[in-house]
Write a structure and sequence with these properties.
The structure holds 3 protein chains of 3 kinds.
Chain A lengths: L21 H16 L5 E2 L13 H10 L5 E6 L6 H13 L4 E2 L8 E5 L12 E5 L13 H10 L3 H14 L10 E3 L3 E3 L18 E6 L4 E5 L5 E3 L32 E6 L2 E7 L2 H7 L7
Parallel strand pairs in A: 2-3, 2-4, 4-5, 5-8
Antiparallel strand pairs in A: 1-9, 6-7, 6-10, 8-9, 11-12
Chain B lengths: L7 E10 L25 E11 L4 E5 L6 H8 L7 E7 L5 E3 L5 H11 E4 L3 H4 L6 H11 L5 H14 L16 H13 L5 E5 L7 H18 L2 E6 L2 H7 L2 E6 L2 E7 H6 L4 H10 L1
Parallel strand pairs in B: 3-8, 3-9, 6-7, 7-8
Antiparallel strand pairs in B: 1-2, 1-4, 4-5, 9-10
Helix pairs in contact in B: 4-5, 4-6, 5-6
Chain C lengths: L27 E14 L4 E14 L3 E5 L6 H8 L7 E6 L5 E2 L5 H10 L1 E4 L11 H11 L4 H14 L16 H13 L5 E5 L7 H16 L3 E5 L3 H7 L2 E4 L6 E2 L3
Helix pairs in contact in C: 3-4, 3-5, 5-6
The chains are: A alpha/beta, B alpha/beta, C alpha/beta.
């Protein structure tokens, strides 16, 4: 299914498919179109009251509810896990308010993927869409408290103070210390906060075949990285951007203790009286590599 | 003799705060002895300011507080917009811009890459939340420099030139003495190799020995970099030492303009005479 | 009020060199005619006349001495030529490729003339703190865009001519004796080979040996073709050095018309 087809909602407006009223859906969709048309630009929108507290993924949830149609297949993850409390609750609410919507945990089968803090390891394909829950939409927030001034900075392309933050990091830590929410320039213009995904995931946004939609419910902002769009992490020419290495002290690469993968983002699990174990953070990827032993 | 053209040509520069009326300029100024228009209540900060600034020249702008000297600098540094007049700035590549009419994006580019500003209050000119090096880096990053090593080396070079010890590069300006904060401001202002430098009461409130070093530094910068500067001060000693030519402002108008030594030794206007006599 | 011999002049772009060819002796360099200067003191409501109707010519390789009673406005004439004072009447023409009336020209032309053509040496030496003597003397050449090392070499040459001990060259002149300072002052006034040199009591309060060295330097400058306009406190010096003597009369004090 293409993203365009998912804009087809059930005909009857009184069905109240997807919790949001039609007015809200139209506003969200208009906002998303604008966000896709101006890559990286933060589109303000009237974030609706949701039955969960702001800050718990209401931005991503509103995007999903405004986009979902019964033909979609939804995957909800939190930190790479489909079965964490947060992911389970969000999935339950969305399916309850979207009758007929199927869910899946398999990345390959999903058409809509709502996520908190991760991008699936598996290469995404046209027809899929990524929806991010965003706590802080503005990358300039760490250097400028006033939103009015931040908007001026974005308008002028004035990101010098963000660069100064990078400079100060390199001076202090000899590298850029930003581990997640790493600022990146989209389509050569706006700099975005890609939500708290690890640096590992940032290259997956670059020229990705799918649209990446970001929703910040509490901050009432939407923004997007359209398919096949340049996403370049902020970095000095002589200090290249680098993703997490997962290197052991002997410089060898840690492997997932379950599936043996050496090309995934790993979680370090401390062990009592033993060296820590390393496991794939993306549960579906790990299970897929093992041939889905649980039949999930 | 090579005939140069001015870096800056200011003509009829006027800034009126308030709604203004047809009589604002006529009813204010030195002759009227006020800068609030009695007819409409608008404040005529400056009116009809005209002067030229030549390459490598230091122009003194003198006057008491409220005379409009800081207003002139704000208008030229594009921190405020004039109500009337023109101010043509000629870039090193020959392009000319009327500072009264440039758009916001151009204003930003000029401020970031062509102008430098040093304030009396270092809190206005420095970011106290980042290190000395970061303060210099910000200006270089504004100009598009993206090589960390280059930024670092340029910052160290600027600290050397402004006599801030290299070892202080990663310290925050809050830990610096007043004189060193001013020198760091100068280093920051010089970072993008500006063509026009504004110095607003830079030595006011500093010890005499610290003042001397800063004035010395400013002259050295002028000698070696040939930057044109506008020096705003109420201190006659500062203009005498720095400026080849000086304009004297009162009630927002230029009441006297001339060679600095002429203004100090043979002032023509009653106000300048009083100013010079009360200082000596 | 003391007047420094050269306020810091804006730097010229490179390529502008001081004149090096020797000017033809006897050629008029400066013509002053009908020069009058008075000071209008607005707050006291009066006008103090200083110089009245001064006319004279200064020629290359010659020394014109201004004499007259104290208050006749001798120093005022010098300051008018240097544009430190604005005269009420008269013209002050600096001859050159094109004549320049210093009483009427714009400020940049006056500054240019100061940088290239006119030196003004008083009994006082004003310079930046911390600057070495060599750099003080080299400053006029550096202001003309000369390479710093070349300028320093020229400065050392001048200092050697004026017999200033070499140990003093690299320290600031602040601590020097009056005679040493005056020699530094004169060296700076001559280093860029100006066409016109103005001297205001250059030997006042100097010991005999220093005075002799200064006089020798003035003679050498004359031989070099420099036109000199000077005020001496000592009539013997006027007799010994002047080619032309101009006597100024003391104007009478008149109340301000306004």
């Amino acid at each position: 299914m293409s993203p365009a087809s998912s804009l087809q909602r059930p005909a009857s407006s009184c069905d109240r498919f997807g919790f949001l009223d039609d007015f809200a859906v139209r506003e969200m969709r208009r906002g998303m179109l604008k966000a896709l048309a101006i890559p990286g630009y933060q589109v303000p929108y009237a974030s609706r009251e949701m039955p969960i507290a702001r800050g718990f993924g209401t931005g991503g949830m509103q995007l999903t509810l405004a986009l979902a149609v019964p033909q979609d297949r939804l995957k909800v993850i939190d930190q790479g896990a489909d079965d964490s409390v947060n992911a389970v609750n969000l999935r339950r609410f969305i399916t309850a308010s979207c009758p007929g919507l199927a869910t899946t945990t398999r990345t390959a089968e999903a058409t809509l993927i709502q996520t908190r803090h991760r991008v699936p390891e598996r290469q995404l394909a046209p027809g899929q869409m990524m929806i991010y829950q965003v706590p802080y939409p503005d990358p300039l927030q760490i250097v400028e408290p006033s939103e009015a001034k931040r908007r001026r900075c974005h308008a002028h392309g004035d990101y010098a103070r963000l660069w100064v933050k990078l400079y100060e990091d390199v001076v202090r830590f000899r590298e850029v210390s930003i581990s997640n929410r790493y600022p990146a320039r989209v389509a050569g213009r706006y700099i975005i906060d890609p939500s708290p995904i690890p640096r590992w995931d940032l290259p997956k946004l670059h020229c990705s075949p799918v649209a990446h939609l970001f929703g910040a419910g509490r901050e009432k902002k939407l923004y997007a990285v359209p398919p096949f769009t340049e996403v370049v992490p902020l970095a000095f020419d002589d200090i290249p951007f680098a993703v997490e290495g997962f290197r052991a002290t002997d410089c060898s690469r840690h492997a997932c203790a379950t599936c043996g993968a050496t090309d995934t983002f790993l979680d370090e699990i401390p062990q009592v009286g033993a060296p820590p174990r390393w496991l794939c953070n993306d549960q579906d990827r790990c299970a897929e590599r093992q041939g889905y032993p649980d039949g999930a | 003799m090579v005939h140069e053209t001015p870096v800056l040509s200011v003509a009829g520069l006027t800034r009126i705060h308030g709604r203004g009326c047809a009589d604002c300029v006529r009813l204010t100024g030195d002759a009227a002895g006020r800068n609030v228009c009695p007819s409409c209540g608008s404040v005529v900060a400056v009116a009809d300011i005209s002067f030229d600034l030549w390459p490598g020249e230091i122009l003194g702008v003198m006057g008491e507080s409220g005379s409009g000297k800081s207003s002139v600098v704000k208008l030229l540094h594009l921190d405020d917009r004039a109500s009337a007049g023109s101010a043509w700035f000629r870039e090193g590549d020959g392009r000319r811009h009327d500072l009264v009419a440039v758009d916001e994006a151009e204003a930003r580019r000029l401020r970031d890459t062509r102008f430098g500003m040093v304030f009396q209050n270092p809190h206005l000119g420095l970011n106290f939340g980042v290190s000395a090096g970061g303060n210099i880096a910000e200006r270089l990053l504004c100009g598009g420099e993206r090589r960390f090593q280059t930024i670092r080396e340029t910052a160290l070079g600027l600290l050397d030139r402004t006599e801030v010890p290299r070892a202080r590069i990663d310290h925050q300006p809050g830990q610096f003495s007043g004189g060193m904060q001013q020198r760091l401001q100068i280093a920051r202002a010089l970072a993008p190799k500006p063509e026009l430098l504004f110095l607003d009461e830079v030595t006011t409130g500093l010890d005499l020995s610290v003042q001397a070093r800063i004035l010395d530094l400013i002259l050295e910068i002028q000698r070696e970099l040939g930057v044109a500067m506008i020096v705003v001060t109420h201190d006659l000693g500062v203009v005498r030492l720095l400026a080849g030519r000086t304009i004297v402002l009162r009630h927002g108008r230029v009441v006297e303009a001339g060679l600095t030594d002429q203004i100090l030794e043979d002032p023509q206007h009653p106000y300048t005479q009083q100013l010079v006599m009360s200082a000596l | 009020m003391p007047q420094s011999s050269s306020p810091i002049a804006p730097a010229l772009p490179c390529g502008l060199k001081a004149q090096s060819s020797k000017p033809k002796a006897g050629l008029a360099v400066l013509t002053v005619s009908g020069l009058s200067k008075s000071f209008t003191l607005h707050h006291q409501g009066k006008s103090i006349p200083s110089a009245y109707d001064a006319s004279f010519t200064v020629c290359a390789g010659q020394l014109t001495a201004l004499v007259g009673p104290s208050g006749a406005g001798k120093s005022s004439v010098l300051k008018c030529v240097y544009r430190t004072y604005l005269p009420q009447a008269g013209s002050i023409v600096l001859h050159g490729d094109t004549d320049l009336d210093l009483a009427a020209c714009d400020e940049h032309a006056a500054l240019r003339a100061r940088r290239r053509d006119i030196s003004y040496v008083t009994q006082f030496l004003h310079c930046l703190p911390r600057q070495s003597t060599v750099d003080v003397v080299a400053a006029p050449l550096v202001a003309l865009g000369e390479d710093r090392e070349v300028a320093r070499e020229a400065a050392r040459l001048r200092l050697r001519e004026l017999d200033l001990p070499g140990r003093l060259w690299d320290v600031p002149p602040a601590t020097f004796s009056g005679g040493e300072r005056q020699r530094v002052n004169l060296a700076r006034g001559l280093v860029h080979r100006p066409r016109l040199l103005m001297l205001d009591e250059p030997t006042a309060s100097l010991d005999q040996r220093s005075a002799e060295l200064v006089v020798a330097a003035i003679r050498a400058a004359k031989c070099d073709g420099v036109a000199i306009l000077a005020i001496f406190h000592d009539p013997a010096l006027v007799a010994a050095l002047a080619d032309t003597v101009v006597t100024l009369k003391r104007p009478t004090e008149v109340p301000c018309a306004a």
